[in-house]
Amino acid sequence: MARTVTLADVAARAGVSTATASRALSGKPRVSREMIERVRAIAAEMGYRVDPVARALRQGSSRLVGMIVPVIGIPFFSQLVDAIEDELNRAGFELLLADSHGFIDEEVRRVRVFHERRVDGIFIIPSDRTASTQSLANLPEGFPVVQVDRATDRPVADFVGVDNLLGLQLVFEHLAEQNVATVAFAGSDDASINGVERWDAFHRLARQHSMTVRATYRSEFSFASGTGAADHIHRAGPLPDAIVCGSDQIAVGVISKLRELGYDVPRDLLVTGFDGGELARVFWPSLTTVVQPVSSIAAEAMKLLLGRIESDDGAIHRNRLAPTLELGASSQRRTAPAS
């Protein structure tokens, strides 16, 4: 097995001290341009690679940030990861991504591994609004952490996400314009703060708009949850004028199952989603959906994390950003053609 080339080997070949070789490779001052080019050429020729862990020990920063998501397969989470990685790259950081698969013990392990790898901070989408506090409990006080999209009940770290109440307000205002009188809900359970807030907002706004709630179904943010919801709402009968869904995946599942049961959306009833990703536009009928400001969430999360990296002082932030409503075919009444 070939021996690993060390910084000392490069320095010896270049005829300089290890310190000078290190400064040349990192481009630091007090080293001439000629020396930098010479040492870097020798390092490349010898196949020298910087040890990021050793560099982190020397510099006190790895320029690495970890991110933990519950289910990477959820389209909205994929969007969020992309947006956060863009923010990190602009700030000179690299992303390490991990999937907790929704299990708290895996989330705890991922947090521990990231800390052992000396990341400069962690973004986390908590798996559970109560149990996920365990995941952050063993980190040193002041370690930079930002919760994204979902927050724990206890304010254990900064948080940035969408304003769920405002999002549902936009939905109900639109449904009122469509003369909707009866509604049903298909959403997630109490495991996440989004599941709770969207459920509470649905009932609050149904009362405000004097709409009758026909049926509700709560499981998880998934396509399967949507098909289960449609089946439940159909059996509960009669069908409502509209079904308000807690995510786009749920909405797609609802519409697909209704289609199997012989119903047409939006002819027979209206359906709305929540997230606003590409899924809402490529599915037919296109979804009316609450669009989360993904880029703004990522930028605000990065701002909070950099603030914690630079200083752990200050109160914990819980920032909610305003969404918009994107109108699709799934919630707009079809009008008969003029004769």
From TrEMBL:
Gene, per the UniProt record: purR
Q: Which UniProt keywords apply?
A: DNA-binding, Transcription, Transcription regulation
Give the matching Gene3D superfamilies: 3.40.50.2300, lambda repressor-like DNA-binding domains (1.10.260.40)
**Pfam families with a match to the protein in the record:** LacI, Peripla_BP_3
User: HTH lacI-type domain: from which residue to which, for each copy?
Assistant: 5-59
Annotated coiled-coil segments of the chain: none
PANTHER family, alphabetized:
HTH-TYPE TRANSCRIPTIONAL REGULATOR GALS, LACI-RELATED TRANSCRIPTIONAL REPRESSOR
Q: What is this protein called?
A: HTH-type transcriptional repressor PurR
Q: Which PROSITE patterns match?
A: HTH_LACI_1, HTH_LACI_2
